[in-house]
Amino acid sequence: MKLNNIIKSTLIAMLLLSSSLYALDKNILAYKDRGIKYYPKYVHKGYTKIGKASWYGKPFHGRLTANGERYNMYGMTAAHKTYALGTRLKVTNLRNRRSVIVRVNDRGPFHSTRKIDLSYGAAKKIGMIHKGVSRVKIEVLSSRGKTSSKKHKKSKKRFVQKKHNLKKHKSKTKKRVLAQKSKKVYKKKVSKKISKHSMKREKRIQLASFSTKKQAKNFNKKHHLKNAIIVKKYIKSQKKTAYRVVINCTQKEAKKLLNSKKFAGAYKLS
């Protein structure tokens, strides 16, 4: 008798433990909607059902789904009343034989005649947007429990690798940008040095002389002289101030300018 009691108590303890573990699994948590209690479960691969499918879109876009993620109406997801969250399904529209693979991330549809609620993106893929409700075949591809499927692990690895590659690419781009900036700074410094050095060797040519600064400025504008400067000079012998238009150029340019005879009164200052 004592032995039987021990076995009974052990079995009860095991049942209580399994039920508590069941309750802790977020993918199959029991829930209530409009007074009806639902008990989600894991479904074996290959399990097939035929029924009506509907879809939901814009009003729910960005809202929280049953598994805690934000609903993306363009994603390949679905809502099911009792299939475990994370279950992957192949849904085929029986009218046109078009199929889509979706992941259950939400609960619904809470309509007695409908079996599944597809996201806008999934419904569009199988051509049931305009009709609204279509007869479909629902096939279970995988129903993950505590241990995730190999495909999920691979996709997770791929995601981590992509993230790592993105970080690597960002750091490389940053280095490239910094290198380009330093090159530009170096070029500017070098060009400044060259310009200073070349200034020492440049020749100064006076193109014309005027009694007012305004006349000198007008002369510059007329001939589009970008490098020309106006030099104010007091002439003692004539007791007047002159405004000379002077241009800096190389020896070769000076020679060319004087030979062209474009400016009649032009002569070399240095």
SS summary, helix count: 5
DSSP strand count: 12
The rough form would be described as rod-shaped
Could you give the order of strands across the largest sheet? 3-7-4-6-5-8
Radius of gyration: 42 Å
Give a quick summary of the entry.
The chain is α+β, with helices and mostly antiparallel strands and 270 residues long.
Describe the structure.
The protein has 270 residues and is α+β, with helices and mostly antiparallel strands. The protein has two domains: 24-147, RlpA-like domain (Barwin-like endoglucanases, Beta Barrel), CATH 2.40.40.10; 200-268, Alpha-Beta Plaits. The protein contains five helices and twelve strands. The chain has helices at 2-24, 120-125, 150-201, 213-223, 251-260; strands at 31-33, 36-38, 48-56, 77-79, 88-93, 99-106, 114-119, 134-142, 203-210, 228-235, 240-249, 267-268. It has a six-stranded mixed beta barrel. Strands 10-11-9-12 form a four-stranded antiparallel sheet. A two-stranded antiparallel ribbon has the order 1-2.
